[in-house]
Amino acid sequence: MPDFSQRSSEIELMDDLESSGEVIALTLKELETINKWLGGNFVTIDGISQLIKNKKEKITIADLGCGGGDMLKLIARWGRKIKVDFDLTGIDANPNIIEFARANCKGYPEISFECININDEAFTSKAYDIITATLFTHHFTNEELKAQLFSFSKQSKIGVVINDLHRHWFAYYSIKWLTKLFSKSEMVRNDAAVSVMRSFRKTELQSLLKEGGLNNYSLKWMWAFRWQLVIKSNN
């Protein structure tokens, strides 16, 4: 039986920045469907809404580990609905994923993409109103993430929205069974359960925030086994 008491360090197939071809396209399409039907995308939208409140001026958002751009499309459609002008940038270090995302987001002029590693100065020197990361932060170690959260808070004028998984036996076995039954992507079948094992308990996130000197935040559990972390910037 897996050990749920601590975060796993097992590498996901998606972590290979040279992944390309049909496996990427199939994986990104399946992930968009999974996140849609499990309702996890709402966690990010709700977090952004807490930060922007009644702001109507143009708001810049960087979505880290943007994948195929499905979250950016949701934010764009939501922005059009509530009459907020978003300038959206998808960030990913895999050029093949960025290529897929650009094709996937045609028809959304408010969305652009950059192939950048978030640990490089090419990214850390930039500033945005809001930084979002959906199912992304679990890819990093605690030490890496502690520094990244601090950096994100400094780079964002309004705040940061993190949407990631709760490490729990029910989430692990549920996604393992669902992907075994319905997924055609080897990457999804492998990475879905590994992602849960690499994800977080509440106390772990609280410790990372405390060690990073971040105290102006809200952290709450949301369906389906997601943590919503909203950090308000002091910039």
Provide keyphrases for this structure.
7-stranded mixed β-sheet; alpha/beta; 235 residues
Walk me through the structure:
With 235 residues, the protein is an alpha/beta fold. It has helices spanning 22-38, 41-52, 70-82, 95-104, 121-124, 142-155, 169-182, 186-198, 202-211; strands at residues 59-64, 86-92, 111-115, 128-134, 156-165, 217-222, 226-232. The chain has a 7-stranded mixed sheet. Helix 7 packs antiparallel against helix 8 (186-198). The radius of gyration is 17 Å and the shape is globular. The termini are far apart. The model has no long low-confidence stretch (mean pLDDT 92).
Question: Mind sketching the topology for me?
Answer:
Blueprint: H1 22-38, H2 41-52, E1 59-64, H3 70-82, E2 86-92, H4 95-104, E3 111-115, H5 121-124, E4 128-134, H6 142-155, E5 156-165, H7 169-182, H8 186-198, H9 202-211, E6 217-222, E7 226-232
Parallel strand pairs: 1-2, 1-4, 2-3, 4-5
Antiparallel strand pairs: 5-7, 6-7
Determine the strand fraction and express it as a percent band. 15-25%
Bin the helical content: 40-55%
Number of strands: 7
The sequence of SSEs as H and E is HHEHEHEHEHEHHHEE
**Sheet/helix structural class:** alpha/beta
Task: Return residue spans where pLDDT drops below 50 for at least 5 consecutive residues.
Answer: none
Query: How many strands, what sense, and barrel or not for the largest sheet?
Result: 7 strands, mixed
Strand order of the largest sheet: 3-2-1-4-5-7-6
What's the tally of helices? 9
Radius of gyration based on Cα positions: 17 Å
Averaged pLDDT: 92
Shape summary: globular
Distance between the termini: 45 Å
